[in-house]
Amino acid sequence: MTRSPVALLPRARALAGTAAQVVATAVLCTLSGLVLWSVLPTAVGWRTSAIVSGSMAPHLAVGDVVITSPVAVDALRPGMVVRFPDPTGAPRAIVHRVVRADAGGTLVTKGDANQSEDSTPVQRDAVTGVGRLRVPLVGLPTVWVREGRFAPVAAVTGLLALSTALALPRGAHPRARRQL
């Protein structure tokens, strides 16, 4: 006795629904984990910075979040990725690599992707932290909002809402019908 393709449709739909639920749950768990990794370190005094330019590519991409911890001034060494206020006075932080210390004790920094060193040396005591962790892509919504690009923010919000709806256990959705 062979089943007709029409008789297999409910089973195929149930399997597709389960697969969608598993994928949606995995997406939500992954994103939740990344967000937690980018927020939890602030509880111990570390800072987070969303990367908004490509100056540190390929090690740090636009949209990555860098977590920095406080560092002793005498511990700063060439090769360290550091966070410091923009020397121009702009209300932002810069995350660049220390290239060397100059004769006056200030730090010469440079973005990994930049051809030349930063024009203004950084005072050691201006460094607010040293890079400890990179969380990929979590800062993209921040970058999009800063740039006034709200379509990607709306798209991600919609995908998260859809993922949440798909991840709900069957029967938990308010419109779900009871199956007897």
From TrEMBL:
InterPro entries: LexA/Signal_pep-like_sf (IPR036286), Peptidase_S26 (IPR019533), Peptidase_S26B (IPR001733)
Keyword Transmembrane: yes
Bilayer-spanning residue ranges: 12-40
UniProt-listed Enzyme Commission number(s): 3.4.21.89
Compartment annotation: Membrane
Top-rank EC class of the record's enzyme: hydrolase
Keywords from the UniProt entry: Membrane, Transmembrane, Transmembrane helix
Record protein name field: Signal peptidase I
